[in-house]
Structures are given as structure tokens and as C-alpha cells.
């Protein structure tokens, strides 16, 4: 296989494994989806702080940065980079800077979705 093709394979494997972990948590535990969301984001931050998530990002690319653990990675990496540049204030502001684009996109696309489609509540 060409190297570009292997990038897709690694992204699929890494992203798929993260999704399998999420599905196992849903199926085998009594954790609510909200708690699993928080767990994944915190795990991404923790693994980034320990230096363990960066190798996954290098290997899996979007397969590691797209799931919720990737949001935690962006928060953690932003905070670490901010702390290196601006000290303690940068530790607080760096995470916001690192995730601002993703948060803004979520807000814009969420608003567009709400404007185009009729929201329905679950019964």
C-alpha cells in the first residue's frame, strides 16, 4: 500500500478503537452519555498531559483528533503551549485559543441546523 493509503487505515483503526471504547462504556456500564462525553474529554486532556496522546495523533491523524478525546487533546495541548508562552495565564487561555475554532463551528452549524430543520423532543 502507498503511504497515503496507510494513513487512512491508521485513522480508521485509531478512530474505530476510540468508538469501540465508547460503545463498550454505553453497553456495559450504567454511565450516561453525558458522563461518557466528559470522561472522553478529560481522558484526552490527561493523556495529552502525560505525553501519550501525541503519538496517537501522529499515527492516526483525524482518527485521533476527531472524537471527543481529540477535543480534550486540543484543550490540553493549547493549555500546555499557552503555559510555555505566557506562564500561568497562558495555561488558562491556551485551551480556549486551541479549541475556539471547533467551538465556533459547532455553534454556527448547530444554529444553521436548528434554523433549517424542525427540532423535536424525545417522548
Based on the model shown, name its key terms.
globular; 123 residues; single chain
Offer a concise description of the structure.
This protein is mainly α. Helix content is 84%, strand content 0%. The radius of gyration is 17 Å and the shape is globular.
Helices, strands, pairings?
Blueprint: H1 3-28, H2 33-49, H3 53-60, H4 62-65, H5 68-86, H6 88-116
Can you offer a commentary on this structure?
This protein is mainly α. The chain is built from six helices and no strands. The chain has helices spanning 3-28, 33-49, 53-60, 62-65, 68-86, 88-116. Helix 2 packs across helix 5 (68-86) and helix 5 (68-86) packs antiparallel against helix 6 (88-116).
The beta-strand count equals 0
How large is the count of helical segments?
A: 6
Give the SSE string. Answer: HHHHHH
Question: Which structural category fits the helices and strands?
Answer: mainly alpha
Terminal residue distance: 49 Å
Point out poorly predicted stretches. Answer: none
Quaternary class: single chain
Q: How is the main sheet built? A: none
Helix content: over 70%
Strand content: under 5%
Rg, nearest Å: 17 Å
Mean pLDDT across all residues, rounded? 93
The dominant shape is globular
